[in-house]
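input
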Amino acid sequence: MRSKSIQNPSTLRTHYKRQLPHVQPIGAAFFVTFRLAGSIPKMVLEHLKIGYRIKIEKCKLIKLEHEKNLQIFNLRKKYIRDLDDLLHEIEAGPHYLKHHEIMKIVEDVLKRFDGEFYDLICYCIMSNHVHVLIDTQLQLNTEYNDEQLDLNYIPLETIMKRIKGATAVYSNRELDRSGQFWERESYDIYIRNEKMMDNVIGYILDNPVKAGIVDKWRLYPGNYYKYDSNTA
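output
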């Protein structure tokens, strides 16, 4: 896979949602997964989260800061993979994104903010969840001082609210339904280097292949890769 170059992100920002850590460096590239509301039974998800929290607490006892951070980072990656496996396995629950009209809504909104808030590198829209890889580095192209950066930089959390808010409204309207469309929490991890970038691109695009929907990732209509030489 041919990927966009990665530069070192700026200040680290860490916050917690539902007791799960989200480390979001300013100007970083992010792998984000978000899913339909009710796509995983609550008890099944809670079991996964409890196991993850126990492992995180054990990692916090590691004295070497670098080793501790690395172990937590690797746990975060495994958690997202385990979540993805659940989403592939569960047949019950909503699968609105399999409808062409809803898939198109999500595609249009993801591309709407491309070049403004982020560089949209690739995405995969499955029947009950979405994987997306975005790079927010373009927001740092303007020379801001620290105070201006805090005022003007649009963080990942805000970006996801705009994406999920718009797609929820349009999708509910198309489906003639009301109520919560997406789960409130998204699952994100920042890209640390070029190797990880390439691995994540492959992971995202191979999702429908892994699920047995298509034999090659280019055959899946919900896949997009900006730097694909076959579509350039």
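quick obs: The chain has seven helices and seven strands.
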